[in-house]
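Let us begin with a simple case.
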Amino acid sequence: MITTRNRCEDLRRTLARLGGMQPPPDEVLVTADGCADDTAAMVRKEFPAVCLRINEPGLGSVPSRDVMLKQARGEIVLCLDDDSYPEDGDFFAKLPQAFAEHPEAMVLSFPEERDGGVFYPESKSPDSPGHYVSAYLNGAAAMLRDPYLEGPGYPAFFTHAYEEPDYAVQCYARRRAVWFLPSVVIRHHRSPKNRDRLQTHHFNARNELWSVWMRCPWPWVPLVSLFRVWRQFCHAARQGGHWMLREPLWWWSAVKGVCVCLRHRSPVEWPIYFGWMRLARLKVTTREELERLLRRELICRR
């Protein structure tokens, strides 16, 4: 599944690469989200087998992905950006076996190779060991569809950003996991179009706080909220005064979403939530280590 906005040429390259794989994917779902270029016409003309959905006006990448996951027919859904694709031609032959080898995983995360042969982040390259992670990138991940449909899934009101960490904590709350698989690489060209770093920071910071309000249990919500706000402010400070002066914009946006977060509140047990937070700084490579961290036994897919 791919959500795209005004990146016609990037999407054309990605769809061509997917079509040339052996075997090809069973289906390709594309959402043109508020596109004002020739994206829809290009897909219809050059890739008629693609299942195309058009959002006009745009709804955002998060609700677009949620709809495509519900629309998909396959058991496994590969999540890509319009400028990312698997490097290996036999990727789709390997994918089911990868999930079979990690029956506790609801999501597999892959190394993301950017231009110049650089992997982002550096700690998640093909040379890194496989390990459990607290988050993943929707441009380089695969998900099991049925478990997604059984839980809250992506919060559509996030619009853009942070749906992946929020879903990861849902996975661990259900005694499942997110596994980083180093052996399969996703090539990400990282198109410069539609990339406003400050706006992305505001979306990510606001949605991170909203996730705290939905998933963190009492009495820890205030403390974790302050930690998240402070950490985001420190990130803005490293970017300069321009960013620091605009931090209150996302604070106010977050406050306006309190009611919708309360309506969607589904708190996670504290040992699991705290263990999930610690995964961002730990490299847990075995199921036994993870179970000790979460204080819960994992459930494997039957």
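The second case is a distinct protein. As before, the sequence precedes its structure tokens.
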Amino acid sequence: QTSNSLVLGLLPGSKAAKLAQGVPIMCAIADQLKIHYPDIQFVLPLAPSLTEEALAQYGDPIHNPIVAMMGGITAKLNHTPDRNQSWLETSGGSRIELKTIGDDGPRTPHYKTLRTCTLCITTVGANTAELGALAIPMLIILPTNQLDAMRAWNGIPGILANLPGFGSLFAKIINTIALRKIGLLAWPNIWAGRPIVPEMVGPLTAEMVVDRVRSYFDHPERLETMKTELRQIRGESGAALKLVAIVEELLAD
């Protein structure tokens, strides 16, 4: 594939615990990929619960001290004069287009944007179900560089991890235990019972992720294989698409 035909989707999630690490590392990934593929495009479909301004704060070291830990690449929010377009501009000069309007208006899915992507880098969660149902190649990343920041657990672990004073300690303990027992994370892999889309978990660097992305960009046949396998597990019954619809309904409530 030529550099100007590459579109990388960035899906850092919607919860603060994921965004704090996800936004900085994805900005760093963009800057490094730009070196190898000067004409590559970056798109970030915004989660319905997130504003552009809130997202941009995760690329600002004043609001997000974890930026320094994830490569030190910062990002600033920019708009066109008519505010019809907005983007994050990284400190390395990359432009990450923000998509705030979905297929059918605000707070609706971004399927049209996602279908333009050569590959998506996403965190764990509902995004992996959507991408799997659409048969869009993906790379799942779960940085654990700052275990204390990963407080997005539900139920009792989430309550303990967010307790004043002791929450930091509980968060580290809970995440350490969870990571030891971790299995398949992406919905397509869970559906298939085997890893058909790559998952990267641990103290990740942008360099590590870029190496993996390049292995797909430079060998497009691997992307085609992933697409084929995603279509196969999606199945004729459309079970995956039904699951995505349920997830979207829950998120909209």
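The first strand starts at residue 7 and ends at 11. Confidence is low (pLDDT under 50) at residues 147-161.
Keep these points in mind for the review questions at the end of the chapter.
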